[in-house]
């Protein structure tokens, strides 16, 4: 039996051209389906990462306002510089001030704490803006980063 199997295996030299082409066609079909899906997953991940940066920063602002109850607002730069926030992520934290319209991220000491930002680019041609958004409003947002339109605002206006 062993000799019979060895003879049969020795006669098999490789794959035919047709078999090779069939495998290539199957791989191409799978790739055509998978590549757009992976692109959407990446867009959704980037969108979720910006929302996560915002909720983490709101938590840091909560600690800041607990220790500084007399303050009415704080910027992401102050939170970072004072050690309340390790990294603001994609949130603008380069200048200090009290207005999101001037290109900074501002947190207001209200109940609940709210965040306002300028437009944050999370992907090519796609932005997200927070306008007086609380953690509850950010978490309630069920939009996806791969959806249109290119500019999104939380809360929706």
UniProtKB/TrEMBL annotation:
Record flagged with keyword Transmembrane helix: yes
Keywords tagged on the record: Competence, Membrane, Methylation, Transmembrane, Transmembrane helix
One Gene Ontology cellular component: cell surface
Membrane-spanning ranges: 20-42
Pfam families tied to this protein: N_methyl
Chief location: other
Biological processes, Gene Ontology terms: establishment of competence for transformation; protein secretion by the type II secretion system
Cellular compartment(s): Cell surface
Keyword Transmembrane helix: yes
Highest taxon in the source lineage: Bacteria
NCBIfam families: IV_pilin_GFxxxE
Entry protein name: Tfp assembly type protein
Protein's organism: Planococcus versutus
């Amino acid at each position: 039996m062993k000799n019979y199997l060895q003879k049969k295996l020795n006669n098999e030299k490789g794959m035919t051209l047709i078999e090779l082409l069939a495998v290539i066609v199957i791989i191409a079909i799978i790739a055509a389906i998978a590549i757009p899906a992976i692109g959407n997953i990446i867009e959704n991940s980037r969108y979720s990462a910006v929302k996560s940066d915002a909720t983490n920063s709101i938590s840091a602002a909560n600690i800041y306002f607990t220790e500084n109850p007399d303050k009415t607002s704080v910027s992401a730069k102050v939170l970072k510089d004072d050690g309340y926030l390790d990294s603001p992520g994609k949130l603008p934290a380069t200048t200090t001030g009290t207005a999101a319209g001037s290109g900074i991220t501002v947190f207001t000491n209200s109940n609940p704490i709210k965040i306002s930002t300028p437009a944050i680019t999370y992907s090519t041609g796609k932005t997200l803006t927070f306008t007086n958004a609380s953690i509850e409003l950010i978490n309630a947002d069920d939009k996806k980063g791969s959806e249109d339109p290119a500019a999104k605002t939380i809360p929706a206006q």
